[in-house]
């Protein structure tokens, strides 16, 4: 079974911790929702797992007894090379070429499958600039799918979309995860994403909590952190050490 395992995972900016001693295992065929207050470290965790920023601690991607290439952990490509005249099919094709600048032999089949999975087959030859926001999100997913990743990392994939568009994008992600038995880690605060998630990880500044779906408010007496607990069984991940990220400045009122 495919697993992404983080152990004693740490991320810091200029010596200030964003993620401290996080240990968690993500398993195959799950959409994992990452939530938390602003500044809890959601984007930092996504960026560190992708390799965009540095980290310390362990990270392993395995399937059974075999190690998988961590290059198969992907997030959407930056739009640096996107032009208004690029077609949808060219945009998706760029997902295959951004590293090697050479198409693999099965490129045509992979592009067709990615467009079909993202409901963009009829728009394949349309300019990328003509897409609606939800269609653009679908095109970004197709660009990911065509690379055949094992883990996809998404930061607010449904933001600024209508309820129906959010549902379409999240259904597309969920179907890919369950069809391919791969893993998605999605950072979001949208209730729609919560509904689509198989597992929920909530990051607090000093604590990481885990739940599965339906909610009821409770209070964590041990740490004094207000959290939204599941009515199903909660499993505590390794607590993060208390660390004073910000200190009041002397002489500043109403801090």
Task: Give an overview in words.
This protein is α/β, with parallel strands linked by helices and 255 residues long. It has helices spanning 42-50, 88-97, 107-117, 133-145, 163-180, 191-196, and strands at residues 2-13, 16-27, 30-36, 56-63, 66-67, 73-74, 151-155, 183-187, 199-203, 208-211, 215-220, 225-230. The protein contains 6 helices and 12 strands. The chain has a 6-stranded mixed beta sheet with strand order 6-7-8-3-9-10. A 4-stranded antiparallel beta sheet has the order 2-1-4-5, with helices on one face. A hairpin with a 2-residue loop joins strand 1 and strand 2 (16-27). Helix 2 (88-97) crosses helix 3 (107-117), helix 2 (88-97) runs parallel beside helix 4 and helix 3 (107-117) runs antiparallel to helix 4 (133-145). The radius of gyration is 20 Å and the shape is globular.
Instruction: Give the name of the CATH superfamily of the largest domain.
Output: P-loop containing nucleotide triphosphate hydrolases
What is the radius of gyration? 20 Å
Name the average pLDDT.
Answer: 81
The CATH architecture name of the largest domain reads: 3-Layer(aba) Sandwich
The arrangement of helices and strands along the chain is: EEEHEEEHHHEHEHEEEE
Give me the number of helical elements.
Answer: 6
CATH level 1 class label of the largest domain: Alpha Beta
CATH topology tier name of the largest domain: Rossmann fold
Low-confidence blocks of residues: 206-255
Tell me the number of strands.
Answer: 12
Taking the sheet with the most strands, its summary is: 6 strands, mixed
Shape verdict: globular
Strand content: 25-35%
Tell me the domain tally.
Answer: 2
Q: Tell me the strand order in the biggest sheet.
A: 6-7-8-3-9-10
